[in-house]
Design brief:
The chain has 7 helices and 7 strands. The chain has 181 residues and is an alpha/beta fold.
Length: 181
């Protein structure tokens, strides 16, 4: 959905930068991203995959892509191998270049991150709580219905929309959560 969103915002988009921490989760997301990009042959993706914040920021400083996709960055470390907090990792990423930073996670929306179609921790929690309550009321786990509706939502930082001079399509704007309006 984020690739489609960017194409709606900027129909002549032809390049994105995808970054990740080389974790198993990142590898799965990269495979899915590559598969999804087959639907958008005009968009070329470049990838930076590393656990090192120093290597990541050095490479980002040399990049000129407009759009940067955060996949998973929770395993990024400093030069001593110490894991960085998400806030610090994302702060360093956003300071490394002039990008419009698109996120796949609500937990990654810090200053400098536009947002996007993100995994909603709140909705995931609500769904899990509903399943737990049903189970506690006596419904067997095997009888609980599978979760088939995505807990993802559109969330955007208004300041980044303004900074990037981006206009959301009306149907997305109508349902999106807008932060810092």
């Amino acid at each position: 959905p984020n690739i489609k969103l960017l194409q709606l915002i900027e129909p002549d988009i032809n390049e994105i930068l995808v970054i990740g921490d080389a974790s198993n989760t990142y590898q799965a997301i990269e495979r899915e991203t590559k598969q999804q990009l087959l639907k958008y042959p005009s968009i070329k993706a470049s990838y930076i995959v590393t656990k090192s914040i120093e290597q990541l920021t050095t490479e980002l400083a040399q990049r000129k892509q407009k759009y940067l996709f955060l996949t998973t960055v929770g395993a990024i470390t400093d030069k001593s191998g110490r894991p960085l907090s998400l806030k610090e990792t994302i702060r360093r990423i956003t300071l490394a270049g002039d990008f419009i930073v698109v996120s796949m996670e609500d937990a990654y929306i810090f200053n400098g991150v536009l947002g996007g179609y993100v995994t909603s921790g709140k909705k995931q929690g609500q769904i899990a709580a509903g399943l737990l309550l049903a189970h506690r009321k006596g419904k067997a786990i095997s009888q609980l219905p599978p979760v088939t509706d995505s807990p993802n939502i559109y969330v955007f930082d208004y300041r980044e929309l303004i900074r990037g001079q981006l206009s959301l399509p009306p149907d997305i704007l109508a349902t999106a959560e807008i932060l810092h309006r």
